[in-house]
User: Fold Short chain dehydrogenase from Sphingomonas glacialis.
Amino acid sequence: MSHTHRFPGKVVFITGAASGIGRATAIAFAAEGARVAILDRTEDGLSETADAVRSAGADALVIACDVSQPDQVEAAVGRVVETFGRLDIAFNNAGVENKPAPVHEISLSEWDRILDINLRGTFVCMKHELAQMVRQGSGVIINTSSGAGVRGVAGGASYTASKHAIIGLTKAAALDYAKLNIRVNAILPGNIETPMMDRFTNGDSQKAIDLEPVGRLGKPEEIADAVLWMSADLGAFVTGAAICVDGGWSL
Assistant:
């Protein structure tokens, strides 16, 4: 990753930043001059991310926020604007995996848990981020979908539904704000070396590697690289896109 300071002074808002893709992306933005607000359900899990962001020479604003709680999201966006004066880039990355089960065995509470965090949480974040971006006349939003957003996954109906829906939400929002200097895109990671993948495979990463045409798991930093490209001027003509970064898994 080359650190060319593509984002000097830009304000970046990242959910799910305590580990994995969110943490890697926060560090990458910090290394390129951004001021970074990092969010996760508790502040405890954010300490390592905050230390890494500050080590890269950037301001780090730590916010405990559960994206399934609309009041917390609204307050978090307000705190970012109050602290930094604006919001330039939002990476709506928070999400959870489902407990594998066929559709008839999925409880309503489990279905609601996945959709409340993955889909409703993304919508609520966008709602408040976009309101600020409209006021300031610019902005970029990137939502984390998944390779499961473009194909089915056995035993994963709730997760798959949420990630398909994020792509539709992204495309509709991109059209709503295309003439307002606001871009909205989705990134679709494949099987990535993250704590979520460890949980999903019960620590047996070979299960996921066997599904990857390239024969390895992706690294969180590789997703971060793609997010930064989509956020930068190099991606200025890209909106409404759903970009797979998955080693060919979704093909």
